[in-house]
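Ticket reopened. Same input as before:
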Amino acid sequence: MKPLRVALAWLLVSLPLAWGVTRSVQKALPLFQISHTHSTTTPKP
Amino acid sequence: MAVHLCIGEVYGFSVFNEPLTRILGITAPTAGADWTIPQVGWIYSIALVMLGLSAAVLGKWVERRGPRCAMLASAACFCGGLLVSALGVAVHQLWLVYLGYGFIGGIGLGLGYIAPVSTLMKWFPDRPGLATGLAIMGFGGGALIGAPLGQELMGVFRSPATTGVAETFIVMAMVYACFMVFGAATVRVPAKGWRPEHAQTKDHVATEARFAVGVDRAWTTPQFWLLWCVLALNVTAGIGILGQASLMCQDMFGVNATVGAGFAGLLSIFNMGGRFLWSSLSDKTGRKAIYCVYFLTGAALYAVLPWTQRTGQHTLFVGVTALIISMYGGGFATIPAYLRDVFGTHQVGAIHGRLITAWSFAALVGPQLVNYLSTARKAAGVPKSEAYHPTLYLMAGVLVIGCICNLLIRPVDVRHHLKEGAVV
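Engineering reply: fixed in the latest deploy. New output:
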């Protein structure tokens, strides 16, 4: 397979994957804010 | 990867669960007429059972017809299943959704899952762990695309007259069909005996399995069943966290549902990354050694989790669970390379297909076990934050048993090897 076709094939699978990872990281950000602000609180029963 | 990224959407199917319970009521479920969460939950379970069964039954066919034909069949079943499900949602017939996404789509999952594995191992004869990691990483990443794509599309199609689920299924079927056909058109099987330039030396040749065990003989050996237990126990323990991630995080640390969902999404990233990294590392360490790492480190980390809850260490809890899930993914991705080491490359795809039944078994048993134990503890009056502790210790024990099974695996007796003329 020619290098250009290989690059295009990788781009085709990488782009949606990168979009999905970005979306998941954005959703996970509040978790670290909670971790930061509540690190000294006791857990709710 | 294109095929696995598509069929991995099944991991993100839960985004449809709630909207499927208000197809008639649109804004809220209509009691007695709309489907319930337990009824809808069966769609995912049927799909996973069919994944295992179809991989086991059709594995030899996949080996015979090659990856391209198998990938096209997978695309036809998976996308066709989505279309049948869309019809089921439109006419509000649950059996059509079971038949579409569960039965037909599940066959597509099984075919698509095993199709590229043996081909990739032939392209990377000196790095089978890297090869299987690349393929199976896509399946882990499928939820990262499928879940937000499903939510976005439902948002676009939602109206006072529809929840947008049927329309979403149709669009997803078309998009995934394009991607899967692209994957099928791109895949190539290397010529027999092909080796990359850098792997022409004797040292590299020595690392390759130069014997073959047929699929029908392989599954009569104790090695196959020990590997079956290795996969089943690894999956049972991983699903203990992955399946309950959001709820467990909310119960243990008192966070809200949004943060819980963020935690589940984060674990999906580690599930995907672990598949590639751990499996690639297994090429250096050997398969038995890396599974000992998965099991023993995993058991130790599970035993630490209750302590992180008692001391209120959220960040440590997130880090430990992420590491556990990365090894859960690593276990999935390394198993085909382990099979190649034990049984040779000849029918490794078909043998892998039969081993996948361990996943179906664990996917049914694991979540039920966690649900049952945590629910029973909560009902007994134990605080929610501590309800999961025995489950976590139990998972640590499960991993220790897995480690023992792994250590018992020995090379297959020569009498099971195929004669040279029989390997075509």
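The longest helix of chain A spans residues 3-37. The CA atoms of residues 36 and 42 of chain A lie 13 Å apart. Please confirm and we'll close it.
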